[in-house]
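Let's do one together. I've listed all components of the complex below, 1108 residues spread over two lines.
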Amino acid sequence: MSKPSLLAIPLGGLGEFGMNMLVLRSGDDMILIDAGMMFPEVELLGVDIVIPDITYLKQNRQHLRAILLTHGHEDHIGALPYILRDLNAPIYGTRFTLALVHKRLEEHGLLDKTDLREVIPGRKLEVGPFEVEFISVTHSTIDCVALAIRTPVGIVIHTGDFKIDQTPIDGQPFDFHAFARYGHEGVLALFSDSTNVERPGYTPSERTVRPRIEELTRAATRKVIISCFASSIPRIQTIVNIAAATGRKVAFIGRSMVDNVEIAHGMNRLTIPDGLIVRSQDIGSFPPEKLVVLVAGSQAEPMSSLSRVAVDNHRLLTLDERDTVILSARIIPGNEKAIFRMLDHMFRKRALIYYDNDGGTIHVSGHASQEEQKLLLNLVRPRFFIPVHGEYRQLFRHAALAHTVGSVSEEILLIEDGQTIEFTEDAAYRREPVTAGRICVDSGSLEEIEEFVIRDRKHLSEDGVVVPIIAIDKHTGQIESTPEIVTRGFLPSDNGIELLAGAREVILRTFEGSNAEEKTDWSVIKEKIRVDLRRYLKKQTSKRPLILPVILEL
Amino acid sequence: MSKPSLLAIPLGGLGEFGMNMLVLRSGDDMILIDAGMMFPEVELLGVDIVIPDITYLKQNRQHLRAILLTHGHEDHIGALPYILRDLNAPIYGTRFTLALVHKRLEEHGLLDKTDLREVIPGRKLEVGPFEVEFISVTHSTIDCVALAIRTPVGIVIHTGDFKIDQTPIDGQPFDFHAFARYGHEGVLALFSDSTNVERPGYTPSERTVRPRIEELTRAATRKVIISCFASSIPRIQTIVNIAAATGRKVAFIGRSMVDNVEIAHGMNRLTIPDGLIVRSQDIGSFPPEKLVVLVAGSQAEPMSSLSRVAVDNHRLLTLDERDTVILSARIIPGNEKAIFRMLDHMFRKRALIYYDNDGGTIHVSGHASQEEQKLLLNLVRPRFFIPVHGEYRQLFRHAALAHTVGSVSEEILLIEDGQTIEFTEDAAYRREPVTAGRICVDSGSLEEIEEFVIRDRKHLSEDGVVVPIIAIDKHTGQIESTPEIVTRGFLPSDNGIELLAGAREVILRTFEGSNAEEKTDWSVIKEKIRVDLRRYLKKQTSKRPLILPVILEL
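Okay, and this is what the predicted structure of the assembly comes out as:
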């Protein structure tokens, strides 16, 4: 019989920010760690989300024993609804993580065929030849775990996303002892989060945002509107506590915000005093000086709640003069332009806007800075170290950081998606890469859950491409002449003229139905046109062409 | 006779970052301060640069007495080649500023019809009813001035771009005394640079970059490649001095870098010891441990020298293992993704890359931080204050900053492009806005100077739209099937099929002629296809349709 070995096969997250996914395989048994998505780069027009190419998993589906989730962020669970069409294995995760997965699978009608199994940090689990312990770690959401996996050739530790928060809001501590214990026993390989490797020092505790946000809330003479990531339950808890402490009530706006608050509240992971909540439909009639509103959309995603509030197009919430707005979130690279455009709209309304830590901390990261990464390396002192979760330069710098720490006894392996490492008890070898890459998904609008479509060659040639070209006169804010619509591989031969005339109507109606501020915001207009046109074309033709709106400013 | 008054009409730069342009008008006499361009937002596909709408200037062209330039950056002079078709007035600027303008107008064949008049800081100039003094200020390039303009209703001061550098590299100081003198006499209105209003404290002196860059150069065992803005003559001087001090020679790569170095050197504003320069064609054969290479393209513009070096596609310069790369420039918001993609390519080559100030200062801003902005307000203590050069939130915050300083005796006026203020000796009034907006220009590629085209309704309907759709298989890096080409309002009826076949050939040839790294960089591929296709279509049809390449990743 051949000696045991372990293959580590990264399918996503090594070379890009997002879509984290790693396969571990020993013989004919395979486990998958996380199944994340990411948002597309600007160049990928007409695409909503991006997921890893799972060709390798599909080819080996009979060997997949389990999907292990480290936490409930989209870049770790967001690909599940798409890959579960092709894969079937029980999904293991902590309670809050599984609740988020449950919600998502329910929306996609995938609950029946999926086996969700709750795990408790500290307990162990047998999966084929692997024994897995879920280790409690701190991060920006709750119920986050690292994984310690006993394999036939040694122990593998995967940190998931983590920071080392000595004073977490929810009281679930970073489990130093578990890492120390495995480090003492001897760890074959460590896979660790590289996201914040460019930040020296320590990431401040989640607790450090409270003083400044409370100060701004106390100083506010009208509504306080705060936006943070909807999964940041500790942040939401802090804001709820501040509202209670300052004699304000709290309302929640945005589907993801409302959903996550309900889930966390339902499992007693978010404490909201009785009578503190104001229903969103009552915001308009509630005294503004007594209100804190938590709103989703901190990244100015087109059509998100906060974006719509900024351009005066939200049904339930208006932004008024002297309201306070606190953006308690990171400005993710690539989103700067959109976020600052949104903030400009808010400044024009004479709101008081806070969006950086200059006057005091209103946001802290959920990822480990350099000193925490070093501490983890020293606790675990693995034989092999593989930086994960990052663009190439971040993986590289994490490798360099580990080199300066000196606690990796054999080798630091810098690999990217698809590049495979084989571990034996004695060594690690680079093996033939497997298929890896990015798959673009058109998932329906943010507002509605529709059947999704994987964009592939087949799809493109079947459903074609539609390019609506809208010329907007910047002076008048009006559409000049009729919109042009260019199509390829899409038009039915018989009713083409009528269909296009109808599509032009849709575009004009969408545009006219937008308010003045939306009309000057191309990203909003393009997204609205894309959503409405898609619905129209789907209905008329049952096809879902790729829609690429182009706005010409005249 | 009616009382004298002064109109201030911003045509650009108030509400966006770039394309600075301000009109001052008294009766029938008008002067223009700066004529800048800006780079388009991502949404403006197929467009190279953006300039202000000068409808107002064209309507009043007989009244234009002078164009006054504060300095030679593109956001202050870049629109000149385009607006001089419609306007004619002498252009006043300092020596280095005019040298840059001269170069640009020469390329556009506009030198003959333009009257460039050099000014010397401290001297005064009569233009119609205006007396203008050019005041020396410090910034990131050289020969920068503010303007003090004596008008029929009082003194107006426009800062241009500035920081307050107490120890400028070139010895041309910030002229505190001039500002103090006008402040003492009494200033009607101050227009001041808002760019860095979000930064507390003082911007460090240009001198502060020397220690770290010198340290990195001394520590380098091979080539040192440094990229900065090509107009940053003080930065280039510092790097030349470091090369000389560390026993290295220096080479220059990139058209803008070579041009600006030649211009500054020719006017003795850049001192390069004899024998220090290595010709760019000799870089390959020169001992790498004895070389510093200054390269244009710090913003990872597609096809720029640095971008091409990163993907191993530069004729003269390669990036090798253990070379040092120093990005001595700001990462301009919106460019992060492209810059980090470029840096990732460099990390893969195992170069040593420095791109932030974490380990020591390698870049400082050229714009005033809050304390400098306050100092200027206190020196000038104007009756009216108008923040300029910034997005809305920056103008707003500059207005708020001025409010806290309290040195504006009458009113702080927050206005955007087109919004007009009328000053009398006694007061300021908001008047009817004039036409203002953005005009998109397709200026030819970065590599070649072609006839430019203003994109307007007429152009769109005349030359049409071409959307090449290229499906690239991420696994193989190859184009899948034949590229699709969608057109509108463009195809001649007779030879359409042939023309499109030829265009597909062009696309395939461009793609095949690119190297492996370029093929994975969509922004590069799109730009190359756009440039080559434009050339082909122009030649075949004499038309210049809008070309919008779309890349689908499979």
